[in-house]
Write a structure and sequence with these properties.
The chain is an alpha/beta fold. The chain has 2 domains: about 25-245, Rossmann fold (3-Layer(aba) Sandwich); about 345-565, Rossmann fold (3-Layer(aba) Sandwich), CATH 3.40.50. The protein contains 24 helices and 20 strands. A 6-stranded mixed sheet has the order 6-7-8-3-9-10, with helices on both faces. Strand 11 (about 350-360) and strand 12 (about 365-375) form a beta hairpin. Helix 4 packs across helix 5, helix 16 packs across helix 17 (about 460-470) and helix 23 runs parallel beside helix 24 (about 605-615). The protein is globular and about 70 Å long. The chain starts with about 25 loop residues before the first strand and ends with a helix.
């Protein structure tokens, strides 16, 4: 499903002819340079969005996606100080000279972090959504109708009377999206709106954006996830602030473009290219599965049993397989990082949870009788929809929350009476939102804070800090203020600050949120390094591909309970599809396509290709 405005497709410049009808959003030769920066954040970007257009924006971290979103919504230079060249017009209003009242009702922006969006002054979700409508003077009966419709479309009607800041991070993000969409602005700009959402929430947002475009709004969405980008009519790819592609998503995100930037296309596109699926069908899993079946039957039955190994030595499919990167994972900068060498020589530590129940002061029972054992040195991923109790469970493992009943033991010791400061010597916790964790004025000071609190000697502290910065790729920014860095880099700073304490157990809450492809790869390499060093790793994640590729064990939660537990091949197997769907989750793309082809458990791309070869 795609959404695009009327008229011919955009040309190389990104302009769209609309037979004299002015676009709702017109960006002309836009350049942005932040104070004190040598290089511009954006250069010569031109893009028109008519009514009904849905344009995705992609690119690696730091490519300029967030800057484009801020400029498109009129925040640059009105709110965020930066030098702007060219122009941005929203509904024929030039944003550089417009006041807030001029843009109100015309354009709205959704940020990736809900804390930057929600008012913190409303007692219920319904009141939060009414806040913007009240400021626009919308009549009460219309207001209620709009609120109910948006709540329903985003699947959060059941949260209407809940207090916004008592919700999970993903639930808050859906409320933040609703608070902008409900205002009915002609232009909707979103900056990584699904970064904190589970797969079900991401699908709901994608469907909503398509509906908004179909209703005549203009939608500009900066994203990493192909679930959203694949729905757009066009996709703009940025690199170092410049346009490198503006085309159908399958072309813009394919090997020809992303490969030239050293990036891997999404799995679904790599498989589509392998099977020569036309661009217009490349995000259609049914079409890709059918084409892969034909490709496997044609190529894999040749003498020798390998793609392209025909009698004439043809290498058509084999060459295509290598070109799209569906063979062994290519070398990456993350793969060259140094191994993690424990400095604090602690024995591997096991965790055990028995009969754990937790009730919040508002009466919500978030965890309901959980039993869980994590052997020493094991790596597990905990998955589940937003609000299923994952983070609540994890916070009991380092004492941030205490059980209403049940117990938690670490290394055989019940931690009920231990203060957090004592538990932190063994269990490190990296928060989902790094801004809840960072407070020092430089990256180095931030990373140094934990080991200093452990009372370690100066030489040990220096070794831990250097190793944590090297492993997270932050050595070059050690002198910078964390809040001068982007969200994805701040998440790495928070990770480094916990790594520097060298805990025996490390808990990662949504570690890939906001990360581009290389960032996800980096986090995966860090998980592998910790596993090899004998550390126990527990990750909470909505990224099913990351989970399937990096964790040998997956624990599935639903409504405060564990409903499945096993290796990825079992949890993501076709026969478990119904159970997984009941949690709001979906298997990774390779698993879904393998199920369509009747190949059994294929949780990763490599497993899918291996199964096709055996077919």
């Amino acid at each position: 499903m795609t959404a695009e405005g009327p008229g011919p497709a955009a040309g190389a410049s990104g302009r769209t002819a609309l037979q004299g009808v002015p676009p709702l959003l017109a960006i002309d030769q836009l350049g942005v340079r932040y104070p004190g920066q040598r290089e511009p954040a954006l250069q010569e970007i031109s893009l028109d969005l008519p009514a009904g257009a849905f344009v995705g924006v992609a690119g690696r971290t730091g490519a300029g996606k967030s800057t484009l979103a801020l400029a498109a919504a009129g925040f640059i230079p009105r709110v965020v100080h930066a030098r702007l060249e060219g122009s941005v017009r929203v509904d024929s209003v030039t944003t550089a000279t417009a006041g807030a009242s001029d843009l109100a009702g015309r354009v709205g922006i959704v940020f990736s972090t809900p804390a930057n969006q929600l008012s913190a002054s409303k007692l219920t979700v319904r009141e939060e959504l009414a806040f913007g409508l009240e400021n626009l003077g919308v009549p009460r009966e219309t207001m209620d109708e709009r609120i109910d419709e948006v709540l329903d479309h985003l699947g959060i009607a059941h949260l209407a009377e809940r207090e916004p800041f008592a919700l999970s991070g993903g639930e808050q993000q859906r409320v933040a999206i609703a608070s902008i969409v409900v205002m009915g602005t002609g232009v909707v700009v979103l900056d990584e709106p699904t970064a904190q959402l589970d797969p079900g929430g991401t699908r709901a947002v994608g469907e909503l954006l398509c509906r908004l475009a179909a209703d005549g709004r203009a939608v500009l969405c900066a994203e990493h996830t192909p679930t959203i980008l694949g729905l757009a009519g066009r996709c703009l790819v940025l690199e170092a602030g410049r346009e490198v592609a503006l085309d159908q998503p399958a072309r813009a995100l394919g090997s020809a473009v992303l490969g030239s930037l050293g990036l891997r296309p999404p799995t679904i596109l790599r498989l589509a290219e392998l099977a020569a699926v036309p661009a217009e069908d490349a995000f259609d899993e049914e079409a890709v599965a059918a084409a892969l079946a034909r490709w496997a039957g044609r190529d894999l039955d040749r003498p020798g049993g390998t793609p392209g190994a025909g009698p004439e030595g043809s290498a058509d499919s084999g060459g295509r397989e290598a070109a799209v990167g569906t063979g062994p994972r290519p070398a990456s900068p993350a793969a060259a990082l140094p191994p993690w060498r424990p400095v604090r020589h602690q024995p591997p530590v096991a965790l055990e949870v028995r009969g754990l129940v937790h009730r919040y002061p508002n009466g919500i029972e978030a965890v309901r009788g959980i039993d869980l054992t994590v052997p020493a040195g094991e790596a597990i991923a905990i998955v589940g929809q937003n609000g299923s109790g994952k983070t609540t469970l994890a916070k009991h493992l380092n004492g941030l929350l205490r059980p209403a009943s049940g117990r938690v033991t670490i290394g055989g010791r019940d931690i009920a009476g231990d203060p957090v400061s004592v538990i932190a010597r063994t269990v490190g916790f990296v928060f989902q939102n790094p801004d809840d964790q960072l407070f020092n004025r430089s990256v180095e000071r931030e990373v140094m804070f934990g080991p200093r609190n452990l009372g370690l000697d100066g030489r040990t502290i220096a070794a831990l800090v250097d190793q944590a910065l090297a492993l997270t790729g932050l050595a070059e920014v050690r002198a910078m203020n964390p809040y001068d860095l982007g969200l994805s880099t701040r998440k790495l700073v928070a990770l480094a600050s916990v790594l520097a304490m060298d805990p025996a157990v490390i808990i990662l809450d949504e570690p890939t949120t906001g990360q581009d492809g290389p960032g996800v790869e980096l986090v995966g390499v860090i998980v592998e390094a910790l596993r090899r060093a004998g550390r126990t790793v527990i990750a909470i994640s909505h990224d099913m591909e990351f989970v399937a590729e990096r964790f040998p064990r997956v624990v599935v939660m639903r409504e405060g309970r564990i409903v499945d537990d096993g290796p990825p091949g079992l949890v993501f197997a076709p026969e478990r599809a119904g159970l997984l769907a009941s949690t709001g989750l979906v298997p990774p793309p390779a698993a879904r396509i393998g199920a369509r082809l009747g190949l059994g458990a294929t949780p990763t791309e490599q497993a899918l290709l291996a199964a096709l070869r055996r077919r």
